[in-house]
Design brief:
The chain is built from 16 helices and nine strands. It is of the alpha+beta class and 432 residues long.
Length: 432
């Protein structure tokens, strides 16, 4: 058994000197008959009664959910690895399991204290940091979580395990953690708000575990070439006109759903979200506007490409209007031409959504009400999906390998002038 256990260790690149043993492999090795044989081999002078009692102690409960059974199997495996199988009788006598370890000295004279095992301190990892938190991309072995989105039994060993997003708060205050946890739980059933998988405290840090958006964010989506962007399963086999219609239909659907009660519409419902101490200091909670996201930007709209259905969802993660913005929208509207979804949506964005006065600005309900009939029209009327020209064409600069956004202007000099007038510059693509 010791040889089998030693061959089951899994090492990861980030911590090559700290291997771990998947609980699935541990259970497979420590089957009841194998445990009994190991006890008999290591303790040949034991009575039949002692062998049976210790075997039952180790194996009882291991077939169920993770818990006491797993804890006793881990303890037995440690004893096998250090050649101390006979000590299992002592652990049986006092009812001690792996979850009770390690023992630490008592702070009082003569006192005895059993403390649960805690995790080691976290090590510095590269993450994407924001004002309130930092997000890490992490992998968890399939045996050690119940958040299976895709069924790939050997994916971890192949280096392709499902990723998760670990969001660690900068604040170490329990109240801030509790408020965010309550609000995230309220959003659990909403298809266009990111689902919370787990909440945890590690040392003095509070964290949340979310599914990883394999498609990146709306911001990273803009940097993708047309050929690499997937919005429906069979888009590569479509002709250009069908591709355009399919893409516009997908955009209409995502924008509409994000504005409904399945997305931001739920967040903007003042009665749905917990009233945090932070917001109480900034907002009149009796105001009908109470209930805000507060950080809507392309980087916080996530693109999930692997779903069980055929829809590739966008989800929300958690002043003065510049004249250049108005000019840019007008230019895009001229390119798309009249009487199509993109033209109508651009007009609505300019006139109703970018209104500085909040009393006249479109609410989520207004946005949803505007988009619903136009999304339905996209489904029924193919021509309504097709603009006169593509508003964006992503091309590659041959000399520097950069991603450049072309606004549909035909003359190269016009493109350079337009880029200069708007103060825009091409940005080299970086993976996050």
């Amino acid at each position: 058994m010791k040889d089998r256990l030693n061959s089951a260790w899994v090492r990861i690149k980030a911590k090559p000197k700290e291997p771990f043993m998947p609980i699935g492999a541990l259970k497979e090795i420590c089957q009841e008959d194998s445990v009994e044989k190991e006890i008999r081999r290591s303790c040949p002078d034991w009575s039949e009664k002692d062998v049976n009692a210790c075997t039952r102690y180790v194996c009882d409960g291991q077939c169920g959910a993770p818990g006491f059974g797993d804890s006793k199997i881990r303890l037995f495996a440690v004893l096998v690895l250090i050649d101390e199988v006979s000590k299992v009788k002592c652990f049986l006598k006092y009812g001690i399991m792996d979850k009770d370890l390690p023992f630490l000295p008592s702070t009082q004279d003569g006192g005895k204290t059993l403390l649960g095992r805690d995790l080691q301190s976290t090590k510095d990892m590269a993450g994407k940091e924001g004002g309130y938190s930092v997000v890490y991309s992490v992998k968890i072995h399939p045996d050690h979580h119940g958040f299976v989105r895709f069924h790939h039994p050997s994916s971890f060993l192949l280096g392709a395990a499902p990723k998760f997003a670990l969001k660690t708060l900068h604040s170490a205050k329990q109240d801030d953690f509790d408020t965010e946890l309550k609000n995230l739980n309220l959003c659990a059933s909403k298809s266009h708000l990111v689902e919370l998988y787990a909440a945890l405290k590690h040392g003095e840090k509070y964290s949340f575990l979310f599914p990883w958006a394999t498609g990146g964010s709306l911001s990273s989506l803009w940097n993708k070439s047309r050929n690499s962007f997937t919005w429906c399963p069979n888009h590569r086999t479509m002709d250009p006109s069908a591709q355009t219609r399919s893409a516009v239909l997908w955009i209409a659907q995502q924008c509409y759903k994000l504005a409904t009660d399945e997305g931001l519409g739920f967040v903007h419902n003042r009665n749905s979200m917990a009233k945090s101490a932070y917001l109480r200091n900034l907002v009149d909670t009796n105001d009908s506007r109470y209930g805000i996201h507060g950080d809507i930007k392309p980087g916080n709209i996530l693109h999930f490409t692997e779903e069980f259905n055929d829809e590739l969802d966008g989800r929300v993660e958690d002043a003065i209007l510049k004249p250049s913005v108005v000019k840019w929208i007008s230019r895009l509207r001229d390119i798309t031409g009249p009487d199509n979804f993109l033209h109508d949506f651009l007009t609505f964005i300019e006139k109703d959504m970018l209104e500085v006065d909040y009393q006249h600005r479109a609410s989520c309900i207004d946005v949803s009400d505007f988009l619903k009939p136009r999304y339905e029209r996209c489904i029924k009327d193919e021509r309504y999906c097709i603009p006169q020209q593509q508003p964006f064409h992503v091309v590659r600069s041959e000399n520097r390998g950069q991603t450049v956004t072309d606004t549909g202007l035909n003359n190269a000099s016009q493109k350079r002038k337009a880029g200069s007038d708007e103060g825009r510059e091409s940005k080299q693509h970086r993976s996050i």
